[in-house]
Amino acid sequence: MRQSVKMLTIAAAVGMGTILGGHPLKTNAESVPSLKEKQSNIQEQRSGVNSNINDAQGQINELQNQQANAKSEMQQIDLAIATTTKEIEAKTAKLNETKAEIAKLQDEIKVIADRIEKRNLLLKDRIRSYQETGGVVNYLDVLMGATSFSDFVDRANAVATIMQADQEILKQQETDKQALQDKENQVEKDLANIEKMVADLQKMNQQLSAQRAEKDKLLAQLAQQEGEVKEYMMDLQEQEQILAAQENAIQKAIQLEQERQAAAAKAAAEAAAAAKAAAASSGGSSVSAAPAPAVSSGSFTRPAAGSITSTYGVRGGTMHWGVDIAQAGTVPVVAAADGVVYVSHYSSSYGNVVYILHNINGQMYTTVYAHMRSAGVPEGTVVKKGQQIGIMGNTGDSRGQHLHFELYRGKWAFHTAINPMGIVPL
Ligand SMILES: [Zn+2]
Q1: Are residues 374 and 255 in the same domain?
Q2: Over the stretch 328-357, which tens digit does the pLDDT of each residue have?
Q3: Are both 397 and 307 inside the same structural domain?
Q4: Which of 263, 281, 299 is the last residue of a domain?
């Protein structure tokens, strides 16, 4: 089980006619130039992958800049929210103070109003008593009772003063009451202003919170994009690593082939010399040159025991680039054919994985063994068909223990695996 690596496709290049490994294979005069061609082909692929890595790094930088901007904008918003919240608190406190002031003024107004009411009643009573008991007459009596003119003036002044005093007090109290009411009106106006201010601030706070939520969302999106690009870049880096290892493996193959050709030429010369000597001594019976190597027809073997749980092909809308073999317990994984291990590492997608380059009768193949519990062969190891290279496992992007096995005709290239059925006995 393995999710397909995204976004990038490297052009497939199919290799032909290569000699590789330490055991004798059919001689092929073109193998060294052909290997060199493959090598330069891989170099081209690597520069393509590297330019994609640079692009991805550029995208990551851009996304990180955007995130930094969004974060600083968010800080501004947070600051504004803090300021408005503080302002709301202050205004709310002011609001409560004003309300208390209004209540106090209303109490004072009530006290004065009560006092005016009482005095009014008192005056009314007094007027009524003047009328009923002839109070006015009594005042007149008071005036008429004057013993002298100056006494009369005194008495008249006294009467006027008493009556006027009542009117003055009443008038003063009405003025006080009016002043309090004016003040109350003013404070009520202040209260309405403060209430409006608080409402405006709260509205502003809501808008700021909405802006903040937007920024949160943007940040989450940017972080997700960055994660995707990073994953993509990891895929690219893994590809680059595999291509580089492959290039080295082919370099090694060139060297081995050159050594083999030199050894073969030397052996042929020696055999020819020996035959000549033998012919000279025995008088003519011919002897054959170096024996032809046995060409293996059953070149591949099954990489692990177990049942096939998923075949090569489209599976649930996604291409499955290999065959899955599953079995419980400690299950050895073996090399499907003779070859050279050129990748043996851990990958987040493939888990513990081994890549082997094979040369089967002049045809290059690559096999991949993924999700292993452990990989038991270092890079550069020359392996034989059926030799154990690891143990079946459940590492990397895998659900349940199984071997994910891939086959490539020629060298490995992204998304170019072929169906191993019919080539590898599975
Ligand atoms: Zn699989």
Answers
A1: no
A2: 999 999 999 988 899 999 988 899 999 999
A3: yes
A4: 281
Are both 245 and 290 inside the same structural domain?
no
Q: What is the DSSP letter of 287?
A: -
Compute the distance from residue 405 Cα to the ligand 1 centre, in Å. Answer: 7
Among the listed residues 250, 290, 275, 252, the one whose alpha carbon sits nearest the alpha carbon of residue 24: 290
Q: Using the 3D structure, point to which of 264, 281, 298 is the last residue of a domain.
A: 281
Q: Which domain holds residue 402?
A: 285-426
Shared-domain flag, residues 44 and 166:
yes
Spatial neighbors of 32 by CB under 8 A, at least 6 apart, are 254, 257, 258, 261
CATH number at residue 366: 2.70.70.10
CA distance 425 to 312: 14
Query: Nearest to residue 299, comparing CAs of 252, 363, 378?
Result: 363
CB 293 within 8 A of CB 360: no
Model confidence pLDDT, tens digit, residues 19-66: 333 344 444 545 778 878 888 888 888 888 888 888 888 988 998 898
- Residue 325 Cα, ligand 1 centroid: separation in angstroms? 8
Q: What is the distance between the alpha carbons of residues 333 and 386, in angstroms, rounded to a whole number?
A: 9
Q: How far is the CA of 346 from the centre of ligand 1 (A)?
A: 16
